[in-house]
Amino acid sequence: MKAPIAFAGSPIDRADHIRANPEELAALTNWRARLLKLDGLAPVYTDEGALEWGTLADADPDAELVFLGLMDGKACFAAVPDEGATGPAYANPSIWAAMSALDPGELALYGGARSLVDWHARHRFCARCGGATQVSKGGWQRNCDSCKAQHFPRTDPVTIMLIEHKGHLLMGRQPRFPARIYSALAGFVEPGETIEEAVARESFEEAGVRVRDVSYVASQPWPFPSQLMIGCHAFTDDPELAVDFTELEEARWFTREELEAARAAGPDGTDTLIFPRPFAIAHNLLVWWLDK
């Protein structure tokens, strides 16, 4: 896949060997360490539009700190906010601004940090016994002092798939989408499923199509709150649709010519379709399909 995938390619060395060594981690928690500045979960920018960094002296003394890793020989940290995400990411204008403004490496760095501190903010208590949990392994684990349970940052797998029939692609739109924006069908992988089974189930549940020959294309970290988008491609032999209107407002087939025209039209799109934005893996999947 030629185009860069948004939120991938972080310049941070995650330095797992340091996470597991409390003495080595403590030695890096000094005046040379860097603190990624956040406003809650939103990024803070320099005058030049880059991520703003400070020192550990800038952190609230009562805040929990998580170790992001090493960059340019310095330890990098972020502070856990008082609250985790309280609403959908698409309702927060600062999120869209970050995805449009940051360069790929900084966007990936921010995305990883956001996912991690958001998880901590929402997991201060043990899911097993309800007791308070404490940061461990530099922020890549939380431990419960009461029942000794260990908790780890989670990533939820989501399949997102291009479904093809005789040179057409199936795309859908949710009611919250702006006009003329369609995307690939998507859904969470459920317990006990393979990726292929999730693609088949979601395709049938959302649009009533039976698919075959599921193949993997690419993946994308999506930090809202913390998902792994697993991009796939599949074929169907029957284009008849039975749309689940509790999930989708509409689903329809697009020709290669319609998709090419929307891509060429840029951000304003055509009268019928706006091509998915570059920060969404649906964009990368469509580019892959059109260019192969």
TrEMBL record:
GO terms under biological process: NAD+ catabolic process; NADP+ catabolic process
InterPro entries per UniProt: NAD-cap_RNA_hydrolase_NudC, NADH_PPase-like_N, NudC-like_C, NUDIX_hydrolase-like_dom_sf, NUDIX_hydrolase_CS, NUDIX_hydrolase_dom, Znr_NADH_PPase
Membrane spanning residue stretches: none
Catalytic activity: a 5'-end NAD(+)-phospho-ribonucleoside in mRNA + H2O = a 5'-end phospho-adenosine-phospho-ribonucleoside in mRNA + beta-nicotinamide D-ribonucleotide + 2 H(+)
Residue ranges of every copy of the Nudix hydrolase domain listed in the record: 153-277
Keyword set includes Cell inner membrane: no
UniProt GO cellular component terms: cytosol
GO MF terms held by the record: metal ion binding; NADH pyrophosphatase activity; RNA NAD-cap (NMN-forming) hydrolase activity
Keyword line: Hydrolase, Magnesium, Metal-binding, NAD
Cofactor(s) listed in the protein's UniProt record: Mg(2+); Zn(2+)
E.C. no: 3.6.1.22
UniProt record similarity statement: Belongs to the Nudix hydrolase family. NudC subfamily.
Protein name per its UniProtKB record: NAD(+) diphosphatase
Organism: Novosphingobium ginsenosidimutans
Biological classification of the source: Bacteria, Pseudomonadati, Pseudomonadota, Alphaproteobacteria, Sphingomonadales
Gene from which the chain derives: nudC
